Amino acid sequence: MEIVIVPDAAAGGELIASAIADLLTRKPDAMLGVATGSTPLPIYRALEAKVKAGSLDVSRARVCQLDEYVGLPVGHPESYREVLLREVLQPLGIPGERFIGPDGAAEDIAGAATAYDQELAAAGGVDLQLLGIGTDGHIGFNEPCSSLASRTRIKTLTEQTRVDNARFFDSLDEVPHHVLTQGIGTILEARHLVLLATGEAKAEAVAQTVEGPLSALVPASALQLHPHATVVVDEAAAARLKLADYFRATYAAKPSWQSI
Questions:
Q1: Catalytic center residues
Q2: Which NCBIfam families does the annotation name (predicted)?
């Protein structure tokens, strides 16, 4: 994996946004995999600034989502599709018809999971997939001990995850118990994986992902299997990396024309 240590979240967002801009220059209709949560917001805001400045054209870009709640009605404001429409597509001016995701409101959820994998394949796959990481090393909703070969599927949310997400709903009772998530095997099919982690709370998970053994106990460690995986971390999230100085020197020595 390529490890890039940046001063703070804003610097990480700008670096990744620049890499996405380079990708869209080379391939204007690239498929971008996006994620929800607070961690990727600096990326989206940096992209928005580039679009408003006229230095980035996203009019032909395609977008796909990483996961979705099961059971929320179409158009529910807290469905991940609606969140991504508000936070990514609308600010960047990407039409909704260029956005695909799993159908969490389908009657046949298992069928919807299979259909989404097939839709991704039919679209030519994902060019760049953005990822966050949980404090337990999960990516998407692939919790510890998820199969490293798993496909898009339904997963049960832990009670702690439901409690954490309750702030977005009127009450805990409204938080869904299940989600559809790209599996680790599905995620690994993207051509470039970019994981952003910020804050001291993520330091142990980052260290286990990067320097620990490949293990289903740390789902993000599956990135070690990928031919083009980039992990961007701020100084706080890099605090437990034994090779932090090596990673800093390696990235500093890259040619100036190279992006991540």
A1: 67, 136, 138, 143
A2: nagB, PRK00443.1-4
